[in-house]
Amino acid sequence: MANQVEFKQLGYLKGHGDWVTTIITNQDPTLPDIVISGSRDKSILVWKLFKQPDGDLAGQPRKQLKGHSHFVSDLVLSNDNKYLLSASWDKELRFWDLVNGTCTNRFVGNKKEIFTCAMSPDNRQILCGGAERRFKLYNVKAEEKLTQQTHLHSDWISSVRYSPIIKNIQPYFVTVGWDGWLKVWNQNFTIRFQFKAHDSQINSVAINPSGEYIATGGKDKKLYIWNITDLKKPAFEYDAGGIINQLAFHPQQNWIVAATENGIKVWQISQEEKAETKTPIVTLDHHTETLVAGGVKKIQKHGAVSVALDANGAKLYGGFTDGSILVWEVSTKN
């Protein structure tokens, strides 16, 4: 008998004044929970979560990291929860000390907007990409080590991600772009695979915890999951019904989560080719009500821009276009 899945909304985190473009959480369950978000309001918020008297979850910014002069586009947390890497449309990366909330290094070698950044699993290498259409490699001291010269994307790089360190799979990293291409790179920066994965721009790429699957999604509203050992065609394909802005794999369940213009959608990844396996197990939307002239309620629906899960997959965080972060509790029952 299939497990029953429940998504219970726990509360809101309110502090941003514009789109919540990125959310990250601690991925080591042995360390204290941490939630950090970035926004088009140019700020980064480190959240303190607490329960209200009615049992709902609430949060307030414990630290506000200021310094970027344009949209914050991506965030990466170090393995020990002590440092944060941020990317921005202001053409800079910044490295933050989370203990005291200060910026320790600025990466200023980029000539155009940066849309994405990633840290290697050992936290020694930093990659970024964006409007320059090529990735750059830095060390944590903000020293530029390499600029991509071959196999360039023909349009903006929207996302770059490292694979986890797993036995039996050679480590790699991936880049995707507005040109619709997915490129898989070896650790020595030689190309392993490259192909046109989507007919239009790809907005997001995610790698599952085993490193076996790569998920891509974007403007064409299609969610593809690729097997790293056979990239000739998607291993799984889903119709999101709306533009996909960001993707995340569940850390324990065989699920893929998408932040779309129509809300957050969750699919159970299944080998069965049945119609019900193509349907999301849940769609989580966010709308607000306001009173207009005559006391009439106006309902406004807000698109999901970012998504993240905590280390155990027990909490799901969604960032929306109105600046809100919604939090759901995820539970399964036999």
Describe this structure in words.
Helices cover 0% and strands 55% of the residues. By secondary structure, it is an all-beta fold. The chain has one domain (4-333): YVTN repeat-like/Quinoprotein amine dehydrogenase (Methylamine Dehydrogenase, Chain H, 7 Propeller). The strands form 8 sheets. The protein has a 4-stranded antiparallel sheet with strand order 1-30-29-28, with no helix packed on it. Strands 2-3-4-5 form a 4-stranded antiparallel sheet, with no helix packed on it. The model has no long low-confidence stretch (mean pLDDT 93). Keywords: WD repeat. It holds the Pfam family WD40.
List the helices and strands and how they pair.
Blueprint: E1 4-14, E2 20-25, E3 35-39, E4 44-51, E5 57-65, E6 72-77, E7 83-88, E8 93-97, E9 102-107, E10 114-119, E11 125-130, E12 136-139, E13 144-147, E14 157-162, E15 172-177, E16 181-186, E17 191-196, E18 202-207, E19 213-218, E20 222-227, E21 236-239, E22 244-249, E23 255-260, E24 263-268, E25 282-284, E26 286-291, E27 297-302, E28 304-309, E29 315-320, E30 324-333
Antiparallel strand pairs: 1-30, 2-3, 3-4, 4-5, 6-7, 7-8, 8-9, 10-11, 11-12, 12-13, 14-15, 15-16, 16-17, 18-19, 19-20, 20-21, 22-23, 23-24, 24-25, 26-27, 28-29, 29-30
WD repeats: 13-49, 65-106, 195-228, 306-334
Keywords: WD repeat
InterPro entries: RACK1-like, WD40_repeat_CS, WD40_rpt
